[in-house]
């Protein structure tokens, strides 16, 4: 099974709904009590408005607002609750998951949303299997059955304790079978959903404008009548827009120095929240010289996470020693246990034992357009550390995000930078997207022992069984070093005076635009 969200991907996941009840919550989503438009600046970009083709944070920011899901996470919560569904439950074998939908569901154009709509959405996503889409999240889904107008039955290939949480991610977005093609991605920007907002206007790389969807029937209560996402190419331009009031909020991603400066700006407030963003140093295990385990291990032995956190991020991120995030059940400091402190002598011994002559020429690629201004500083810090050891000669290169996604999947890079926002607050989602039999990323790494452990933990609801499996997975990853965890960050938002609700909007893995209000 494979799970992922590029950023995610970032990404524990989306913790969305407000005031959800067992029956699916309040159906009143009128603008009464809501306030005026909120303009949010970001340097995120959108790869697709079609859920079947989107698996990155910028796209999911839009999808989360426009489309409804069977289940969703309540704001600040980690247990999925009903959205389009009224109730859901597993059969005793943990391989059949049945959901009963709310009655009277509609898409924003007035078309009915039924069990057939849900079946269509999952069938097309798996059929299209877009390389930049989220179909890999549903590796255990065998088929989707519509029974009558309101019952959906998900048949799984194997027991999967995390399936309800996967449904609650934006990979589970429901589309209109009358307006979306069954075998290809939707062309254009006129998208129809049943979520809390409609996409009123969209201009790529410039602006996305949202209005409250009067036909939405679900638990979310929007605190604004509309919001606008203003896209910026550079963090410096985003910072300037905050200062001059062009935007009244900013999220993802200001540089650490910009954030420090804005903290001293009158009329501006910087708010920090718990973050799940991670940064990984990824190898392609079939591209030279990354195909040699000793090369990967030597890099892991040299990398100084504390130095990267200090030099590139002014201490605003924390060192990470496992693919499983800090604070997630099942986490171990596997890389610290294996390699200890950075040590050039130990790295040299690793290469020597493998008969590898130093310095090793290694290319490392990063993208300047997706991970914020500090990504360049991070890449430079990595090169400096590896070159200073005398064991490596690192060549840096950068590629714009759209091409970057294609190249890493095609195995074009020996090593490269990947940011990660988990989809759900479960250790499985930090490992299976990269290590399953059909991984989302282009790592070239295939380990049957890890894949067997993934099947074991996915099929169990026993925390002890799952955590033992995760501990072994982390140990194997530290030994083989196909991916080196580097850091885990915080979430930061900047708002001008008069904007409220940002403390709720700063949910661990998805910014909740519907929680914001201008108070006007």
Automatic annotation (TrEMBL):
Entry keyword S-adenosyl-L-methionine: no
Keywords on record: Signal, Transport
Superkingdom of this protein's organism: Bacteria
Membrane spanning stretches: none
Main subcellular localisation: other
Signal peptide (UniProt feature, chain positions): 1-22
Compartmental location: Cell envelope
Record keyword Signal present: yes
Domain Solute-binding protein family: from-to ranges: 79-438
Chain coiled-coil ranges: none
Family under the similarity heading: Belongs to the bacterial solute-binding protein 5 family.
Protein name: ABC transporter substrate-binding protein
């Amino acid at each position: 099974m494979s799970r992922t969200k590029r950023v995610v991907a970032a990404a524990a996941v989306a913790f969305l709904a407000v005031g959800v009840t067992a029956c699916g919550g309040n159906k009143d989503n009128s603008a009464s009590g809501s306030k005026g438009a909120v303009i949010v600046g970001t340097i995120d970009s959108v790869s697709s408005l079609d859920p079947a083709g989107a698996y990155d944070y910028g796209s999911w920011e839009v999808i989360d607002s426009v489309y409804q899901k069977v289940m969703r996470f309540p704001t600040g919560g980690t247990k999925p609750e009903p959205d389009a569904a009224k109730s859901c439950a597993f059969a005793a074998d943990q391989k059949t998951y049945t959901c009963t939908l709310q009655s009277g569901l509609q898409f924003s154009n007035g078309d009915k949303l039924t069990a057939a709509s849900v079946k269509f959405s999952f069938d097309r996503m798996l059929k299209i299997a877009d390389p930049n889409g989220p179909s890999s999240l549903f590796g255990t889904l065998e088929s989707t059955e519509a029974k009558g107008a309101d019952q959906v039955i998900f048949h799984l290939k194997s027991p999967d304790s995390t399936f309800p949480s996967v449904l609650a991610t934006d990979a589970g977005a429901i589309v209109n079978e009358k307006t979306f093609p069954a075998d290809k991605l939707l062309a254009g920007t006129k998208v129809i959903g049943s979520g809390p907002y409609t996409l009123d206007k969209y201009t790529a790389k410039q602006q996305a404008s949202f209005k409250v969807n009067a036909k939405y029937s679900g638990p979310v209560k929007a605190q604004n009548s509309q919001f606008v996402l203003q896209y910026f190419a550079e963090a410096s331009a985003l910072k300037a827009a905050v200062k001059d009031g062009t935007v009244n909020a900013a999220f993802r991603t200001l540089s650490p120095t910009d954030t420090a400066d804005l903290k001293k700006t009158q009329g501006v407030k910087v708010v920090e929240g718990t973050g799940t963003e991670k940064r990984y140093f990824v190898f392609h295990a079939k591209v030279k010289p990354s195909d040699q385990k000793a090369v990967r291990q030597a890099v892991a032995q040299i990398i100084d996470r504390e130095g990267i956190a200090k030099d590139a991020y002014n201490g605003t991120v924390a060192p990470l020693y496992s693919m499983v995030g800090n604070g997630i059940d099942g986490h171990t400091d596997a890389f610290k246990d294996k390699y200890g402190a950075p040590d050039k002598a130990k790295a040299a011994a690793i290469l020597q034992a493998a008969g590898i002559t130093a310095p090793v020429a290694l290319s490392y690629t990063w993208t300047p357009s997706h991970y914020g201004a500090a990504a360049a500083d991070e890449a430079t810090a990595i090169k400096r550390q590896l070159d200073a050891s005398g064991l490596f000669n690192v060549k840096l290169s950068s590629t714009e995000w759209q091409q970057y996604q294609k190249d890493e999947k095609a195995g074009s890079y020996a090593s490269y930078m990947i940011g990660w926002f988990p989809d759900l607050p479960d250790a499985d989602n930090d490992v299976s997207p990269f290590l399953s039999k059909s991984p989302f990323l282009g790592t070239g790494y295939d380990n049957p022992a890890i894949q067997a452990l993934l099947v074991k933990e996915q099929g169990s609801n026993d925390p002890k069984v799952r955590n033992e499996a995760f501990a072994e997975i982390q140990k194997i990853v530290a030994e083989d070093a196909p991916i080196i965890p580097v850091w885990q960050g915080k979430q930061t938002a900047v708002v001008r005076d008069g904007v409220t609700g940002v403390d709720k909007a700063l949910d661990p893995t998805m910014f909740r635009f519907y929680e914001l209000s201008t108070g006007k």
